[in-house]
Automatic annotation (TrEMBL):
GO molecular function, one term: mechanosensitive monoatomic ion channel activity
Domain of life where this protein originates: Bacteria
Membrane topology: Multi-pass membrane protein
Protein name: Mechanosensitive ion channel family protein
Sequence intervals crossing the membrane: 13-33, 54-72, 78-96
Organism ancestry: Bacteria, Bacillati, Bacillota, Clostridia, Peptostreptococcales
Keywords for this protein: Cell membrane, Membrane, Transmembrane, Transmembrane helix
Amino acid sequence: MEKILERIMSTEIFASAVVVLLAVVVMAILEKICRGYIKRNDPDHRVMSMIRSVLRTIRVLVGILVVFAILQINGVNISSMVAGVGVAGALVGLAMQDIFKDLIMGLHIVSDKAFKYGDVVIINDVEGIVTSFTLLTTQLKDVNSGNLVTICNRNISATSVVCGIYDIDLPLRYDEDPEDVKKILTRAAEAIDRIQDVEYCQYMGVQRFDSSAVIYKIRFKCSPAEKWPVWRKAMTELQKVVVDTGLEIPFQQIDVHNI
Protein backbone atom coordinates (compact mmCIF):
# COMPACT_ATOMS: atom_id res chain seq x y z
CA MET A 1 0.00 0.00 0.00
CA GLU A 2 2.80 2.36 0.89
CA LYS A 3 4.51 1.66 -2.43
CA ILE A 4 1.29 2.41 -4.29
CA LEU A 5 0.92 5.72 -2.44
CA GLU A 6 4.53 6.60 -3.10
CA ARG A 7 4.02 5.86 -6.77
CA ILE A 8 0.89 7.98 -6.90
CA MET A 9 2.62 10.88 -5.11
CA SER A 10 5.78 10.58 -7.17
CA THR A 11 7.20 13.43 -9.20
CA GLU A 12 6.59 11.56 -12.47
CA ILE A 13 2.86 11.18 -11.84
CA PHE A 14 2.56 14.81 -10.75
CA ALA A 15 4.46 16.01 -13.82
CA SER A 16 2.31 13.84 -16.10
CA ALA A 17 -0.86 15.26 -14.56
CA VAL A 18 0.44 18.79 -15.05
CA VAL A 19 1.18 18.07 -18.74
CA VAL A 20 -2.32 16.69 -19.30
CA LEU A 21 -3.91 19.62 -17.45
CA LEU A 22 -1.92 22.18 -19.44
CA ALA A 23 -2.89 20.51 -22.71
CA VAL A 24 -6.58 20.54 -21.76
CA VAL A 25 -6.45 24.20 -20.67
CA VAL A 26 -4.58 25.30 -23.80
CA MET A 27 -7.06 23.52 -26.08
CA ALA A 28 -10.04 24.93 -24.18
CA ILE A 29 -8.68 28.47 -24.48
CA LEU A 30 -7.90 28.00 -28.17
CA GLU A 31 -11.37 26.64 -28.91
CA LYS A 32 -13.00 29.51 -27.01
CA ILE A 33 -10.97 32.06 -28.98
CA CYS A 34 -11.92 30.38 -32.26
CA ARG A 35 -15.63 30.28 -31.36
CA GLY A 36 -15.53 33.98 -30.52
CA TYR A 37 -13.77 34.78 -33.80
CA ILE A 38 -16.33 32.78 -35.81
CA LYS A 39 -19.23 34.49 -34.03
CA ARG A 40 -17.83 38.00 -34.61
CA ASN A 41 -16.20 37.74 -38.03
CA ASP A 42 -17.75 34.82 -39.90
CA PRO A 43 -21.52 35.36 -40.24
CA ASP A 44 -21.55 33.55 -43.60
CA HIS A 45 -19.76 30.46 -42.19
CA ARG A 46 -17.05 30.77 -44.85
CA VAL A 47 -14.09 29.93 -42.61
CA MET A 48 -15.91 27.98 -39.90
CA SER A 49 -15.18 24.61 -41.49
CA MET A 50 -11.53 25.49 -42.01
CA ILE A 51 -11.11 26.55 -38.37
CA ARG A 52 -12.84 23.41 -37.12
CA SER A 53 -10.64 21.20 -39.31
CA VAL A 54 -7.52 22.99 -38.07
CA LEU A 55 -8.68 22.57 -34.47
CA ARG A 56 -9.22 18.84 -34.98
CA THR A 57 -5.71 18.54 -36.42
CA ILE A 58 -4.21 20.52 -33.54
CA ARG A 59 -6.12 18.37 -31.05
CA VAL A 60 -4.65 15.19 -32.55
CA LEU A 61 -1.13 16.61 -32.60
CA VAL A 62 -1.39 17.85 -29.01
CA GLY A 63 -2.64 14.42 -27.94
CA ILE A 64 0.35 12.73 -29.59
CA LEU A 65 2.77 15.18 -27.99
CA VAL A 66 1.17 14.69 -24.57
CA VAL A 67 1.53 10.90 -24.87
CA PHE A 68 5.20 11.25 -25.84
CA ALA A 69 5.82 13.72 -23.01
CA ILE A 70 4.23 11.42 -20.43
CA LEU A 71 6.24 8.44 -21.64
CA GLN A 72 9.45 10.47 -21.52
CA ILE A 73 8.68 11.72 -18.01
CA ASN A 74 8.11 8.17 -16.83
CA GLY A 75 11.47 6.99 -18.17
CA VAL A 76 10.35 5.35 -21.42
CA ASN A 77 12.81 5.76 -24.27
CA ILE A 78 10.73 7.23 -27.09
CA SER A 79 13.52 7.76 -29.66
CA SER A 80 12.73 4.48 -31.43
CA MET A 81 9.02 5.28 -31.26
CA VAL A 82 9.60 8.69 -32.87
CA ALA A 83 11.54 7.04 -35.68
CA GLY A 84 8.73 4.53 -36.15
CA VAL A 85 6.16 7.32 -36.22
CA GLY A 86 8.23 9.07 -38.90
CA VAL A 87 8.23 5.98 -41.13
CA ALA A 88 4.54 5.40 -40.49
CA GLY A 89 3.86 9.07 -41.30
CA ALA A 90 5.61 8.73 -44.66
CA LEU A 91 3.52 5.65 -45.51
CA VAL A 92 0.32 7.34 -44.39
CA GLY A 93 1.23 10.42 -46.45
CA LEU A 94 1.50 8.31 -49.60
CA ALA A 95 -1.80 6.63 -48.85
CA MET A 96 -3.57 9.94 -48.14
CA GLN A 97 -2.67 11.86 -51.29
CA ASP A 98 -6.33 12.26 -52.27
CA ILE A 99 -7.16 13.63 -48.82
CA PHE A 100 -4.39 16.21 -49.15
CA LYS A 101 -5.82 17.20 -52.55
CA ASP A 102 -9.23 17.65 -50.90
CA LEU A 103 -7.67 19.81 -48.19
CA ILE A 104 -5.85 22.03 -50.68
CA MET A 105 -8.98 22.57 -52.78
CA GLY A 106 -11.01 23.19 -49.62
CA LEU A 107 -8.56 25.91 -48.59
CA HIS A 108 -8.82 27.43 -52.08
CA ILE A 109 -12.62 27.52 -51.82
CA VAL A 110 -12.46 29.23 -48.43
CA SER A 111 -9.78 31.76 -49.40
CA ASP A 112 -11.44 32.60 -52.75
CA LYS A 113 -14.90 32.83 -51.13
CA ALA A 114 -16.26 30.72 -53.98
CA PHE A 115 -19.51 29.97 -52.14
CA LYS A 116 -20.93 29.78 -48.63
CA TYR A 117 -23.37 27.73 -46.62
CA GLY A 118 -26.90 28.16 -48.00
CA ASP A 119 -25.86 29.28 -51.51
CA VAL A 120 -27.40 27.58 -54.52
CA VAL A 121 -24.49 26.53 -56.73
CA ILE A 122 -23.79 24.44 -59.81
CA ILE A 123 -20.94 21.96 -59.32
CA ASN A 124 -20.25 19.14 -61.78
CA ASP A 125 -23.65 19.70 -63.46
CA VAL A 126 -25.45 19.40 -60.11
CA GLU A 127 -27.53 22.42 -59.08
CA GLY A 128 -28.10 22.37 -55.36
CA ILE A 129 -28.15 24.15 -52.02
CA VAL A 130 -24.91 23.99 -50.03
CA THR A 131 -25.97 22.14 -46.88
CA SER A 132 -22.50 21.24 -45.61
CA PHE A 133 -18.93 22.22 -46.37
CA THR A 134 -15.69 20.93 -44.90
CA LEU A 135 -12.12 21.05 -46.11
CA LEU A 136 -12.64 17.53 -47.48
CA THR A 137 -16.15 17.46 -48.96
CA THR A 138 -19.03 19.65 -50.11
CA GLN A 139 -22.60 18.46 -49.73
CA LEU A 140 -25.45 19.76 -51.92
CA LYS A 141 -29.20 19.24 -51.81
CA ASP A 142 -30.21 18.89 -55.45
CA VAL A 143 -32.95 21.47 -56.20
CA ASN A 144 -34.36 19.25 -58.96
CA SER A 145 -34.58 15.89 -57.16
CA GLY A 146 -34.01 16.67 -53.47
CA ASN A 147 -31.15 14.17 -53.33
CA LEU A 148 -28.17 14.88 -51.09
CA VAL A 149 -25.02 14.86 -53.23
CA THR A 150 -21.58 14.69 -51.58
CA ILE A 151 -18.65 15.83 -53.72
CA CYS A 152 -14.98 15.41 -52.81
CA ASN A 153 -13.37 18.85 -53.02
CA ARG A 154 -10.60 17.55 -55.29
CA ASN A 155 -13.26 16.88 -57.96
CA ILE A 156 -14.47 20.49 -58.01
CA SER A 157 -12.98 22.21 -61.04
CA ALA A 158 -15.50 25.03 -61.48
CA THR A 159 -18.40 26.47 -59.47
CA SER A 160 -21.24 28.82 -60.32
CA VAL A 161 -23.38 30.59 -57.72
CA VAL A 162 -26.94 30.74 -59.06
CA CYS A 163 -28.35 34.28 -58.95
CA GLY A 164 -32.01 33.26 -59.30
CA ILE A 165 -32.88 35.07 -62.56
CA TYR A 166 -35.04 32.98 -64.93
CA ASP A 167 -36.45 33.63 -68.39
CA ILE A 168 -39.70 32.44 -69.91
CA ASP A 169 -39.64 32.38 -73.71
CA LEU A 170 -43.10 32.52 -75.28
CA PRO A 171 -43.48 31.75 -79.02
CA LEU A 172 -46.29 33.67 -80.78
CA ARG A 173 -47.50 34.04 -84.36
CA TYR A 174 -45.81 36.47 -86.70
CA ASP A 175 -49.06 38.30 -87.41
CA GLU A 176 -49.67 39.25 -83.76
CA ASP A 177 -49.51 43.04 -83.20
CA PRO A 178 -46.30 43.73 -81.20
CA GLU A 179 -47.95 46.56 -79.27
CA ASP A 180 -50.88 44.38 -78.25
CA VAL A 181 -48.46 41.60 -77.25
CA LYS A 182 -46.49 44.09 -75.16
CA LYS A 183 -49.61 45.19 -73.23
CA ILE A 184 -50.78 41.60 -72.69
CA LEU A 185 -47.42 40.25 -71.56
CA THR A 186 -46.80 43.30 -69.36
CA ARG A 187 -50.05 42.42 -67.60
CA ALA A 188 -48.88 38.81 -67.31
CA ALA A 189 -45.58 39.99 -65.80
CA GLU A 190 -47.48 42.04 -63.24
CA ALA A 191 -49.51 38.95 -62.27
CA ILE A 192 -46.33 36.89 -61.92
CA ASP A 193 -44.77 39.68 -59.85
CA ARG A 194 -47.54 39.24 -57.27
CA ILE A 195 -46.63 35.57 -56.69
CA GLN A 196 -45.12 34.90 -53.28
CA ASP A 197 -41.30 34.55 -53.35
CA VAL A 198 -40.98 36.50 -56.63
CA GLU A 199 -38.68 39.50 -56.14
CA TYR A 200 -39.55 41.12 -59.46
CA CYS A 201 -40.88 40.25 -62.90
CA GLN A 202 -40.86 42.24 -66.13
CA TYR A 203 -41.63 41.93 -69.79
CA MET A 204 -38.34 42.13 -71.71
CA GLY A 205 -39.59 42.33 -75.33
CA VAL A 206 -38.83 40.41 -78.51
CA GLN A 207 -36.02 37.91 -77.96
CA ARG A 208 -35.56 36.45 -81.46
CA PHE A 209 -37.24 35.32 -84.65
CA ASP A 210 -37.66 31.59 -85.18
CA SER A 211 -38.74 29.83 -88.32
CA SER A 212 -42.38 29.60 -87.25
CA ALA A 213 -42.77 32.11 -84.42
CA VAL A 214 -41.60 35.32 -82.77
CA ILE A 215 -40.11 34.63 -79.34
CA TYR A 216 -41.06 37.07 -76.57
CA LYS A 217 -39.27 37.06 -73.21
CA ILE A 218 -40.52 37.52 -69.65
CA ARG A 219 -37.91 37.58 -66.86
CA PHE A 220 -38.41 37.06 -63.14
CA LYS A 221 -36.19 36.67 -60.10
CA CYS A 222 -36.72 34.48 -57.05
CA SER A 223 -34.74 32.46 -54.56
CA PRO A 224 -33.01 29.64 -56.48
CA ALA A 225 -34.16 27.23 -53.80
CA GLU A 226 -37.80 28.07 -54.76
CA LYS A 227 -37.17 27.90 -58.50
CA TRP A 228 -39.53 25.12 -59.51
CA PRO A 229 -42.58 26.00 -57.33
CA VAL A 230 -42.37 29.62 -58.50
CA TRP A 231 -41.79 28.55 -62.12
CA ARG A 232 -44.96 26.42 -62.15
CA LYS A 233 -47.03 29.26 -60.65
CA ALA A 234 -45.61 31.70 -63.19
CA MET A 235 -46.44 29.38 -66.09
CA THR A 236 -50.00 29.03 -64.73
CA GLU A 237 -50.44 32.82 -64.67
CA LEU A 238 -49.03 33.09 -68.18
CA GLN A 239 -51.36 30.37 -69.45
CA LYS A 240 -54.38 32.22 -68.01
CA VAL A 241 -53.39 35.38 -69.89
CA VAL A 242 -52.77 33.51 -73.14
CA VAL A 243 -56.17 31.78 -72.94
CA ASP A 244 -58.10 34.92 -71.89
CA THR A 245 -56.64 37.12 -74.64
CA GLY A 246 -56.71 34.57 -77.44
CA LEU A 247 -52.99 34.64 -78.18
CA GLU A 248 -51.97 31.68 -80.30
CA ILE A 249 -48.82 29.63 -79.91
CA PRO A 250 -48.11 28.40 -83.45
CA PHE A 251 -47.17 24.91 -84.45
CA GLN A 252 -43.86 24.50 -86.16
CA GLN A 253 -44.33 24.88 -89.89
CA ILE A 254 -42.36 23.07 -92.57
CA ASP A 255 -42.55 23.87 -96.28
CA VAL A 256 -42.28 20.77 -98.46
CA HIS A 257 -41.38 21.28 -102.13
CA ASN A 258 -41.96 18.55 -104.71
CA ILE A 259 -39.24 18.39 -107.32
